[in-house]
Amino acid sequence: MSEEILVNFGPTETRVALVENGVLQEVYVERAHSKGYVGNIYKGKVVRVLPGMQAAFVDIGQERAGFIHVADIAPLNKDGVEQRSSEDADIRDLLREGQSVLVQVTKDPIGTKGARLTTHLSVSARYLVYMPNTDHIGVSNRIEDEDERERLKLLVNELAEEYKEQYPIGGFIIRTVAEGALKEELQADIPFVFRLWHDLEDSIKAAKAPSIIYEDMPLFMRTVRDLMRPNLERARIDSRESFARMQKFAKHYAPEIGARLEHYPGERPLFDLYGVENEIQKALQKKVLLKSGGYLIIEQTEAMSTIDVNTGAFVGHRNLEETIFKTNLEAAAAIARQLRVRNLGGIIIIDFIDMREEEHQRQVLRSFEKHMEKDRAKTTITGVSELGLVEMTRKRTRESLGQVLCETCPACGGRGQLKSAETICYEIFREILREARTYDNDKFLVLASQVVIDRLLDEESSNVADLEVFIERTIQFQVESMYNQEQYDIVLA
In this structure, is residue 414 part of a structural domain? Predict the structure, then answer.
């Protein structure tokens, strides 16, 4: 399988695309005015404690206060090491209003919700995540080989001991990308994170709440740290300046990947060359066409996302059950890809087409689970429910692609539908009747969009004439080009 990373730079935003065999799988967007906050560390100020929710709001200097749950608060012992929080812990024993607290962002602000916070602080390197306030060494669950897990834990413990005299040891999480890594590769990470945290401690002492202590790397640098995996063929960057910065970073930090960084000087835009622009536009649509003629309908709401599978024009060659089975198999692969491209998170309900044969159900579910193994986000998938639905969760740490690139329609308010011109005409009639009973004026002036005025003067003209006779007043009309279909005003004249 061929994997490539494409890094596109513009004056106001950076975009990164992960492409597998020429097909877009993931896309990341970071805009200059609205960078992500995940990984940032703040000295915050507790503004409200909520005993009923066992949570608190913390001012970290953003537009909205961050949210922290009692489960994400780590009490420290006398040596400053994290203790496991008790299930019976009370938020009032851990935080109080006005208190300063060090917190780290685990989820970006999404919609009306502020950032999700934790006091389990960490800083990341290429292979390791360093946790200064714990002594635990853990391994990513995606490294499944037990011998490899044990080798990495022993290696990290051995390396950390070498720096015991200079720095407090702390704890580590060994990242997925460390699988198969040599001692020399891991060795570079440990002094890096130790020095980084040592510098941050000085900043923490001098900082006042609310203020930022540590800001994670920009997107293109995180690309080198987080996305450059061993099976990656190359990363193409369309900015010479940023390419040089990435090369310099890789030289000192991950020299084995420096040769796979490539500057793209072509005149044709990099995302156009790979068809990424077109795929991004498709990912903003509700309907996803399948090669067989079937299609998906993807609906995203604040509470959950739903995906409906339909056979469409695909009728199969043998029977209906075969048609349904093949459509569902194709849909399983397409859904897994769409979840990654769109970065849909939270609760996701998938309505595959009903299958009579249990073996077909098992095969479709196995196929879907296999395709989801490529997803770096943590996912949990249930079996097929009594209603024939597959329920799953996907960890949400940043806004979805639609939330980043789009905003709520000002005309429909997010409903996805507009009232018809006929409906608006009848609303206008009712409003005129209400105002005719209240005011003693000579005439009414209706201001509305072109399509509504056209209908009032054409299909509804006889109704308008009857209304004028009934209220014994004249009704005039005026097109307002800036009005959307649902907007109108009735002026007394």
Answer: no
Contacts for 46 with CB less than 8 Å, ≥ 6 apart: 56, 57, 58, 59, 95, 96, 97, 98, 99, 100, 101
Structure tokens at 424: 């608006």
Q: What is the pLDDT of residue 415?
A: 78
pLDDT 10s digits, 12-69: 899 999 999 999 999 999 987 777 889 999 999 999 999 999 999 999 999 899 999 9
State how far the Cα of 296 lies from the Cα of 309, in Å rounded to an integer: 5
Q: Residue 49, exposed/middle/buried by CB under 10 A (0-12, 13-18, 19+)?
A: middle
- β-strand partners of 337: none
What Cα–Cα distance (Å) separates residue 25 from each residue in 17, 219, 335, 404? 8, 17, 11, 17
CATH code, domain carrying 457: 3.40.1260.20
Q: What is the pLDDT of residues 157-210, one digit of tens each?
A: 888 888 777 777 789 999 888 888 888 878 878 888 888 888 888 888 889 999
Q: Mean pLDDT, the chain, as a whole number?
A: 89
| Phi, then psi, of 87 in degrees rounded to 5 | -60, -25
CB 283 within 8 A of CB 338: yes
The pLDDT of residue 80 is above 70? no
Continuous segment of H or E residues that includes residue 26: strand 23-31
pLDDT value at position 316?
A: 53
Structure pTM?
0.78
479: phi then psi, degrees, rounded to nearest 5: -80, 130
Alpha carbon distance 44, 48 (integer Å): 12
135 shares a domain with 26: no
433 token code pair: 């009747």
Distance CA 295, CA 461 (A): 42
Residue 233 lies in domain:
3-34+218-277
